[in-house]
Amino acid sequence: MSESTISLKGVMPPIPTPFDESGEVHYGALKDNLERWNEYDLRGYIVLGSNGEGVLLDEEEKARVWEAARRAIPAEKLLIAGTGGESTRQTIATTQRAADAGADAALVVTPHYYSPKMTAESLVQHYTKVADASPIPILIYNVPKFTNVNVEPAAAARAAQHPKIAGMKDTSGNITQLAETVRMAGPGFQVLAGSAGFFLAGLAVGAIGGILALANIAPEMGLEVMRLFEAGALAEAAELQRRMIPVNHAVTGRFGIAGLKAAMDMLGYYGGPVRSPLLGISEEEGQTLRGILKEGGVLT
User: Which of 62, 77, 169, 261 is catalytic?
Assistant: First the structure.
C-alpha cells in the first residue's frame, strides 16, 4: 500500500459520550472533558466508538457530537469517528457525515449481524467500497468480543492495499495475530493495539500506538509505557504494564462502560450515566472500583 497521509502513531482514548440525567447528550461536559484531555500529549480521540456508546445514538445525534468534539479538539490532534454500520451503504453515508463534521479519519467496525457470512471476501469488499467512497482515511476495527467476527491477517493485508485504508485497531488480544497482520500488511499499514491490557506486547510486535480505554482516566500511563518502550527501558515499561492490567480490566471487561464513567467521576471528569439499556454500577461495585483505582495508583 502507499504511505498514508495520516499518522496514527501515539495514544488515543476512545472517549465516552456524556449524557445528562434525562439521557440527552451533555455537550458542556464533552467540551470540559476534552479540554482536560488536551493537556496531555495524546495523538487524538476516538469519538463514538464502542466506549462512546455509538450504537445507542441516532444519526443526527452522531453528527452533532462530532461537530461539538471537533470544536473542542485542536487541529493538531485527530478526531477519529466511529462510523461502522451493518450495511456498506449505511457505513458510507455515516462516514460522509463524519467527514463533513470535521473528522480526520473513520474507525469502521466489522459488520456482524450476519456473522457466519462475514467471510474474508465480504469484509474486504465492504472495506474497499467504503474506502472508495470516503473522503477521509479508513481504519478497520476488529473487536471479536462484541461482533463474533474476526479480521484475519490475510484479509487485513488485502484491504491494506487500498490507499485510503490507513490502519487497523485490533482489540482481539491475540498478539500472534496482531504480529501477523503487521508482517503481512507491510510498511505503511498502521496497526494499533486496542487495549491497555496488551499495549506493551502490541508495541513489541509492531503496533505503532494504542487506542486505550484506560487513557480516559490515566492518559499518562499509556503515554509513559510508549515512551519507555521507545527509549528501550523495557523492564520499566513491563513493570508499568503489569500495574495497568487490573485497572484496565476493571474499566473494560469487569464493569464495562458504566465502570469507566464511574471512574471518570471519581477522578474529576464528567462520566455521568450510561444510556439504556445499559445499567450503571451498584454502590458496592463502585467501592470495589475505587479500591482498584487506588491500588493501581490512579486515584489517591
Answer: 169
